[in-house]
Write a structure and sequence with these properties.
The chain is α/β, with parallel strands linked by helices and 633 residues long. The chain has 26 helices and eleven strands. The model has no long low-confidence stretch (mean pLDDT 92).
Length: 633
């Protein structure tokens, strides 16, 4: 059994290949558009090595959960908290308040090994643009790995205690088949969940684990066979790394091949005297050295890339080379002065490991989170961006007592305009109605009118049938019946989300037809053209005079054409009596739309307005177009 834990320099070489695949993918090298498979190779290596150790101890009746988790803590935590603390410094200097708040949450979740759950629950897709600005996005894989090692040692102990070796092998292989099928299924059902969470990833470290369990039963292969096996193995790693893209279905079946490649490469180096040709290459000293740094390199590379991109710089070849060099240098430092001492010098008992390493690390991560989140991301760091202080300028924060509360009826706390004994009308809709409350408030005060407001996500008018509320509540219908009692009914919604010819599309048209037939004054507010998360970020950089400099003309929003039969166009065509307030009339000239008024950006995110933006547009609308509410009957 000693062969199980014999040091394998070629495995460190494979680690180097894995981490460089990930790095080259993250620096957007098109050749390795599927370089993210390096993470899957890591999972297999980890499963093999740790299962080898556990299996040996179980067979000798020396396995201890305390010792196992002590080694995991010493291996993972010290360098992790070191990196987290250090990258918090540039995060404070560069990240805007909303991103800094989000960063603080990922710090805590990373330390608690729950960052994969956090990223999934916040509906982040690993491959979409907004995740490029998350310095700790990559730590989801650490969470998956640690969650696996909460389950796998217990399962191994049970298998050893109650089953013979043959039966253990049968059960492990059955589990492997089931988890592969589960991954394929989950990948089709929910790509984000499959990517981030353990169930769809379980088979990857399990493949390495089963290899370790079968290790002594695997017959000795000849050198020529090992050459072939190693070549096939490296091809199974590199071909997916080259062929796959961000759009590929993953993990599922596409993740099986690089994992199988890793298994073959570990297998082809089993016998020192007959190892495969690729294994011999992987044992080159420089490659092995980089493999020893692989954990630190994985931790360091992504934050460096994020800060470069965050400041608006393109990853040119010189910057890529500088990124790789900085990653290697920082990794060498953290490996030599943090990883190595805590793994081999500072060896404490279980209780002292918890007291001296784990608990302080969690406390530091918790303190980082508490301070940053408690201060709302320190928005005062960027005085030129006061419009992004969410506590005072984000409608969903300021109107939190009104938005999405499903209230129906006159609610003075949520009403807008000139306070009277009786309301003159109502503003209804979804999140766009929530920010439009500040636009309508300016117009209503000018027209001496008083409005009730009822806004909830997923309810543009009645109910968003494209994304139905599974609770079955009839808030939308009750709100509509209440609105029909009013003389003036303003509707603001995310109209571009209405799929042409969908059930919801026609239901909205029928509802407006009903209101027109009742002689109601219907006012539709058409929202601004959308921008993008990346473009909004560049707007902030431009205004804050940070990082790469952009020309304002390059940040203006294209006046793109709405789809044929766009619902606002249909309303105008079918119901001429309906008043349309188009915010684009104020912000757009020719084929470009401005994104700022009164030297403040009007957007909260890439499609919602902030409070000051909605008010500024309303004031300019009054000045240039007059007040359409004054002309209502």
């Amino acid at each position: 059994m000693s062969k199980i834990i014999t040091y394998r320099p070629d495995i460190d070489g494979l680690r180097a290949i894995s981490v460089f695949l990930v790095i080259l993918f993250h620096v957007d090298l098109s050749l390795f558009s599927g370089g993210f498979v390096g993470v899957d190779v890591f999972f297999v290596i980890s499963g093999y090595l740790i299962t080898s150790s556990i299996n040996k101890q179980l067979l000798s009746h020396s396995f201890s959960f305390k010792e196992f988790y002590v080694r995991r803590i010493r291996r993972i935590i010290p360098v992790l908290i070191f990196v987290l603390v250090l990258i918090t410094i540039p995060a404070y200097l560069f990240l805007f308040s909303n991103d800094f708040e989000s960063y603080s949450r990922t710090v805590l979740h990373t330390m608690l090994s729950t960052n994969n759950f956090y990223l999934w629950s916040t509906n982040n897709d690993y491959f979409v643009g907004n995740t490029e600005f998350m310095p700790l996005l990559h730590t989801w894989s650490l969470s998956v790995e640690e969650q696996f090692y909460l389950v796998w040692p217990i399962l191994m102990l049970l298998l050893h205690r109650f089953l013979s070796l043959n039966n253990r092998v049968y059960v492990a292989n059955a589990l492997l088949i089931c988890t592969i099928l589960l991954s394929i299924y989950l990948t089709r059902e929910d790509k984000s969940m499959a990517y981030f969470l353990l169930p769809a990833r379980f088979f990857e470290p399990l493949m390495g684990g089963i290899l370790a369990i079968l290790w002594e039963r695997i017959p000795k292969l000849t050198k020529s066979i090992n050459h072939v096996v190693s070549i096939v193995g490296i091809l199974l790693v590199f071909i997916p790394a080259i062929v796959l893209t961000k759009e590929s279905v993953f993990p599922g079946l596409n993740a099986l091949w690089p994992c199988l490649g890793a298994v073959l490469l570990i297998l082809s180096g089993k016998e020192n005297g007959s190892k495969g040709v690729v294994n011999s290459v992987l044992e080159f000293r420089a490659i092995v050295f980089l493999g020893l740094l692989s954990y630190s390199m994985y931790l360091w590379h992504w934050p460096i890339i994020v800060f470069i991109k965050y400041l608006g710089f393109e990853l040119t070849l010189p910057l890529v080379l500088m990124t790789i060099m900085a990653t290697i240098l920082l990794s060498y430092f953290s490996w030599k002065f943090i990883e190595q001492p805590f793994r081999y010098t500072f060896k404490y008992t279980f209780s002292r490991t918890l007291l001296y390493i784990l608990l302080p690390s969690i406390m530091v991560a918790g303190l980082i989170y508490a301070v940053i989140d408690g201060k709302d991301g320190f928005p005062n760091r960027f005085p030129d961006l006061i419009e992004f202080n969410r506590k005072v300028n984000f409608p969903d924060e300021v109107r939190s007592q009104c938005y999405n509360k499903h209230r129906i009826g006159n609610d003075k706390e949520c009403n807008i305009g000139v306070v009277k004994d009786k309301v003159d009308g109502i503003l209804i809709g979804d999140s766009f109605a929530n920010y439009s409350a500040y636009f309508v408030d300016v117009l209503a005060k000018d027209a001496n009118m008083y409005f009730d407001v009822s806004a909830a996500p997923g309810y543009p008018l009645l109910r968003n049938l494209d994304f139905p509320d599974k609770s079955g509540d009839d808030y939308g219908k009750k709100r509509f019946e209440y609105a029909k009692k009013m003389d003036v009914i303003c509707i603001a919604a995310f109209w571009e989300a209405m799929r042409v010819d969908s059930e919801n599309y026609y239901q909205i048209l029928e509802s407006i037809k009903e209101l027109v037939a009742l002689k109601k004054n219907v006012v539709i507010i058409d929202h601004l053209r959308m921008t993008s998360e990346v473009n909004l970020h560049k707007m902030k950089l431009h205004k804050a005079k940070m990082g790469a400099q952009f020309l304002k003309k390059d940040l203006l929003i294209p006046f793109y054409k709405r789809p044929e039969k766009y619902i606002i166009s249909e309303i105008q065509k079918r119901f001429p009596s309906v008043t349309i307030i188009d915010l684009n009339d104020i912000m757009c000239v020719d084929d470009k739309c401005d994104y700022a008024l009164n030297e403040q950006i009007v957007y909260r995110d890439f499609y919602h307005l902030n409070i000051s933006g909605a008010r500024s547009i309303a004031e300019k609308y009054l000045e240039e177009k007059g007040n359409p509410l004054r002309s209502l009957k």
